[in-house]
Design brief:
Blueprint: H1 2-24, H2 26-29, H3 34-52, E1 59-62, E2 68-72, H4 87-97, H5 109-120, H6 131-144, H7 149-156, H8 160-176, H9 179-189, H10 199-207, H11 216-225, H12 238-254, H13 260-267, H14 289-305, H15 310-315, E3 319-322, H16 326-339, E4 348-355, E5 361-368, E6 371-372, E7 380-381, H17 400-409, E8 418-421, E9 424-427, E10 447-450, E11 458-461, H18 462-468, H19 471-481, H20 483-493, H21 496-500, H22 520-526, H23 547-558, E12 562-563, E13 566-567, E14 569-573, E15 588-589, H24 593-602, H25 614-619, E16 627-632, E17 639-644, E18 649-655, E19 663-666, E20 672-675, H26 687-699
Parallel strand pairs: 1-3, 5-13, 6-7
Antiparallel strand pairs: 1-2, 3-14, 4-5, 4-18, 8-11, 9-10, 12-15, 16-17, 17-18, 19-20
Helix pairs in contact: 1-5, 3-8, 4-11, 4-12, 6-7, 6-8, 6-9, 11-12, 12-13, 16-26, 17-19, 17-20
Length: about 725
């Protein structure tokens, strides 16, 4: 009976071996039945996948000088050539995974038959995959199907069909690549746990060295990990990792690459990995650190908006040279922190800087009092405070720039013309509540507005109005220019993203929209409220606003009315060093040059005595020609200052990012806090202006004091 069973078993093994051999030799001897045909269906595509899908690489983000600031990746990998890998590493891997690597041609016949016999006869389960076959499988799992769970499962399924496909691709590879290339290819794609892939990254992360310097014990540890990197992790499972490393050393002895005496001595050595986990860079913009993280985040957001996918960005191995000026960014952050401490609860102070120009508007700095990072208890945040619209409140009277420009564009109002500026005004064009004008008739339908300070002559030039910022004057101008023209001007000059995704009403700004803030009974008496975008309060800047876009408004004005996207990209190259074009929006002449230049002259008095930013300018001894405009929202809950010289434009904003409702108290530099609505005293001429002047005075130190452009008589007028 036993003899008969043995004969049947041997017959079965012979048939199995025949199928395997026939299937593997298919390219030479023809089809081998259904299983081999199934394998044949996809072998060519699998081969091309290996050739056409490059492995994921780390994308490097640098400053404008080319100095790295961050790395973006899904797989931490450092490409390594065959001559950059130590012999100890190579022989450790070969000894444990494929002892006859240099003898076979992609498939180890002896190993395949031995494994088949052992597995079928009930002996120890054995693998038969060569390093070439493992290279195929690892490439499919870690490269071709890295985001395809089903594809990964198919690349690992325990079927003869899958093994045949894998073997046939391996044979093809052996005709196209040398043994050294295959070995290095395997060591470049294999996983070593914790997002670490390839021996180059593993050498650095595990031992703080390079792959050419890996020792026998180091190579043995890494070679022992490849069959189960999670289970053999030396930090989580040091005992198992040690056991596996020593097993590799024994295999090196069997392969005559190490003496028994040396192996026993090396087994007594510690694992030698770096303490506290692998040394690898952060995989996202957190790696840019607290100072440059906001800029890095804007780079990522900008490229995604231009059509790049996150997968491509994080796996493409690009080098992105940005427009970041480290010194300017440092001074901007320093100034923001001097005004508001990073640990101040519910207070964000930001500064965004953009370089004017008629062909590009390069972003120079994006800074905040808060650090960029994931640890809120340390004053960190990953919200894009200096550049995004979300988590930001209004910019206040800085929006009066758009009303002034729209009025000037009609040709009926010039920068030197006299306009009305009463202490209070009730608009019959815009509807709203009677408050805060209690003396008008109850239930009067109209939008009532008063100035932030009492008194006033009742009239002044438009230039003086931009300097002193009376609310009534600009609501009157808003009536004259028309709301649509004012809203359009805001977009033209630079608030593109802000106006397209206004966070106050959940959608684009609609000049004709009616606010629903009052109840139905209140609306019957008072009409719709005015405190919403598109209503009379638009010129008072109640809408959430991007600080970066506000800075770009100043850059557009200083560029003769030419708008360009605020770009953070200097140059981008692929993994081979070839330039990568970025599909950015083209620059455009947003408003006539004469209008922009005359508006700049109109905004040139804010830093002088009588201007809303005069005290902040005087505090740093400012003596350069500039444009500027402050802004403050209702209940002093947020404030802004935008300004520019011919060399550099910027906007500073202070706001409540976490709980927006309420006020801000300014008790001087370093003494700013969130307070109840009735306790606020914040104005654009305080924290924001001090932040702007504090940074700009240092950034521009040593630069010439350039004059502002000359005004155009067509937009000056004299009544």
């Amino acid at each position: 009976m036993r003899m008969r069973d043995g004969l049947f078993k041997m017959l079965g093994l012979c048939l199995l071996a025949g199928v395997l051999v026939a299937g593997i030799l298919f390219p030479v001897v023809g089809a081998a039945g259904v299983m081999s045909n199934e394998a044949s269906d996809t072998v060519e595509s699998m081969s091309s996948d290996l050739a056409d899908d490059p492995p994921p690489l780390v994308t490097t983000v640098t400053d404008r000088e080319g100095n790295p600031i961050a790395t973006l990746y899904d797989q931490y990998r450092i490409p390594t050539t065959p001559d950059q890998i130590s012999e100890a590493m190579k022989w450790a891997l070969i000894s444990v995974e494929d002892r006859r690597f240099y003898e076979h041609h992609g498939v180890d016949w002896k190993g395949t038959l031995r494994a088949a016999i052992s597995n079928t006869s009930g002996g120890d389960t054995q693998g038969a995959s060569t390093l070439t076959q493992q290279y195929v499988k690892n490439y499919l799992i870690n490269v071709t199907y890295r985001d395809d769970q089903l594809g990964q499962q198919r690349a690992q399924e325990a079927t003869i069909a899958r093994k045949l496909k894998e073997a046939r691709v391996a044979i093809q590879l052996e005709t196209k690549m040398s043994k050294e290339e295959i070995l290095a290819g395997y060591l470049n794609v294999v996983e070593f746990s914790r997002q670490i892939y390839g021996v180059g990254a593993a050498a650095h992360a595990y031992f703080g060295t390079t792959p050419d310097k890996l020792t026998v014990t180091q190579g043995a540890l890494l070679a022992g990990m490849v069959n189960n990197p999670v289970a053999n992790d030396p930090w989580n499972n040091p005992e198992r990792a040690t056991e596996r490393r020593n097993f590799v050393l024994d295999k090196m002895v069997e392969n005559r690459k190490l003496s028994e005496e040396d192996a026993e001595r090396l087994k007594a050595e510690p694992l030698g990995v770096v303490p506290n986990g692998p040394e690898k860079p952060a995989a996202n913009c957190v790696g840019a650190g607290p100072e440059h993280g906001f800029f890095c985040q804007y780079v990522e957001d900008y490229l995604l908006e231009q059509g790049m996918t996150k997968d491509d960005l994080y796996t493409g191995g690009y080098t992105i040279r940005t427009t970041l000026d480290r010194e300017a960014n440092h001074l901007a952050k320093q100034s923001a922190e001097e005004q508001v401490g990073k640990m101040e609860d519910n207070v964000a102070n930001t500064l965004s800087l953009v370089k004017p120009g008629q062909d590009r508007h390069e972003v120079v700095a994006l800074a905040a009092n808060r650090d960029y990072g994931p640890d809120a208890s340390a004053g960190q945040t990953e919200y894009s405070l200096p550049s995004d619209v979300a988590n930001v409140t209004g910019a206040g009277s800085s929006y009066k720039i758009f009303t002034a420009a729209a009025a000037m564009a009609t040709g009926k109002v010039g920068i030197y013309d006299t306009i009305q500026s009463p202490s209070s005004y009730v608009s019959q064009v815009f509807s709203g509540s009677p408050a805060p004008c209690p003396y008008i008739a109850p239930y009067t339908r109209g939008y009532c507005v008063t100035n932030a300070t009492e008194g006033g002559s009742g009239s002044m030039t438009l230039q003086t109005a931009l300097q002193t910022s009376p609310n009534t004057a600009f609501v009157i101008l808003e009536e004259q220019a028309g709301m649509k023209a004012v809203v359009d001007m805001a977009s033209k000059l630079g608030l593109r993203k802000t106006m397209a995704s206004n966070a106050a009403n959940g959608g684009p700004v609609n000049p004709e929209a009616e606010s629903q803030e009052l109840s139905q009974s209140q609306t019957q008496f008072f009409g719709p409220t005015a405190n919403s975008p598109g209503k009379g309060s638009f010129t008072l800047g109640v809408s959430p606003t991007s600080g970066l876009e506000l800075a770009n408004v100043a850059a557009t004005i200083m560029s003769g009315g030419v708008w360009c996207p605020p770009t953070p990209i200097g140059e981008m190259t692929d993994r081979d060093g070839n330039p990568v074009p970025i599909k950015e929006q083209p620059c455009e002449q947003a408003v006539p040059e004469g209008l922009a230049n005359t508006l700049a002259v109109g905004m040139s008095k804010d830093d002088l005595p009588g201007g809303t930013a005069a005290a902040a300018a005087q505090g740093v001894g400012w003596n350069r020609p500039m444009i500027g405009k402050t802004g403050t929202t209702q209940v002093n809950g947020s404030a802004a200052f935008l300004g520019a010289t011919p060399q550099l434009a910027g906007a500073a904003m202070v706001f409540r990012p976490d709980v927006p409702n309420g006020g801000l108290y300014d008790g001087g530099p370093g003494n700013v806090s969130a307070v109840p609505a009735d306790s606020g005293n914040m104005f654009g001429g305080k924290t924001p202006a001090r932040t702007w002047f504090g940074a700009m005075s240092k950034i521009l130190e040593g630069e010439p004091a350039l004059p502002l452009p000359a005004s155009d008589p067509r937009y000056e007028r004299f009544d």
